Amino acid sequence: MNVTQITHHDLDGYGASTVVGQFVDVSRIVHVPRYSDVGPVVEAELKRLGKAREPEMIVMTDLGLEAVAVTFIKSFAALNRRRDATARHRLIVLDHHASSLDQLRDGKLEARVDPEAPNVKRFDLEDPDIVVLIDETRCATRLAYEHRALYATGEAGTREAGEDPILAALVTAVDAVDLWRKDRAEFRAGLSLDEMFWDNVSNLVPIGHPWHDRFVSDLLLGVARLLGDGATPAGIEGQVGALRTAILDRYLADDAGDDRTLTTRMRIARVLARSDLFHPLSDGTLMSFGLDSGTFQRVSDLIMESGRASRVLNVQRAGTMSFRSNNETALEGARRFRGGGHKDAAGGKLTSGTAFSLADAIAQVEPVLNPPAPDPSASPFGALKNWKG
Prior knowledge:
alpha/beta, 6-stranded mixed beta sheet, 16% strand, Oligoribonuclease NrnB/cAMP/cGMP phosphodiesterase (DHH superfamily), DHH_sf
């Protein structure tokens, strides 16, 4: 079964995706930094699922359900009712925000409380393939771990809760810091894990590259192993560099072009420069989305040096744009977006202000950067030119 996880872009969201990935093969992970972006994401998923012939599973974690997400859940149930019994999709929603309870109730969904687990609120959609659980006392990472039987497949789903000490260390650390439980001994461990996460989540392997989630999860599990061994926050900070190097050594073990004398960022930049992370626009400009500024600088230079493109563009979620070129066209591109700068290094801003995905950014950039040629027949003079009266 094809499995998609939609999760928040923070430590708990990635902790939840790391846990889920230990018990089921996830085909695709969608990270949502802002709850306002949930609407477009779930609308696209609903359209895709409506066309899917085979049953799929969606796992939603730590998203803080808003009205649009509740509408998606109800629409998902309606979609399932229209499908054959053997082709119905599965939806697992695991969340812990108090606001989610309010939104679900506003959406006329009633909670059912299990007497043996009174903190867990289960919302009934009258569909056994849809499970919506809200528990304010646990972070999403812990919910994903404790309720793994809902989505797990094969032998992985039979693991006992205390069998994996590394996962247990990850869960307790994330739970302590995400719920801001300073009274717990694991709180300091959670803070060190959180610092490591934000220092590494976007500036090395960006979202969109096949290594992204694997790299972040391997880092989280590596730090969890140190926590399980009793490492202090200072000790963890001192070992993060070695963890990253060891992870990259494994990934590039069969890469004859890898140079281990370079920094982690330099080595990864070489991989990114030959990846499909950059989308070609109609004029040959290669465009990326959400790259860290330092990474974009290195990767764009390598791309142009290799001859793949003469102009490279990066668009951030906040709508800022960075152009690089080796033929003095960067400034020309930036000027189309109210920008300026140098001939080969310039910046601008999307007219709409923001973008929520690569596809959204492409839709906004392409018609402005490469406007279609005017149709002569659209003007009165063009029409006269073709008149044969």
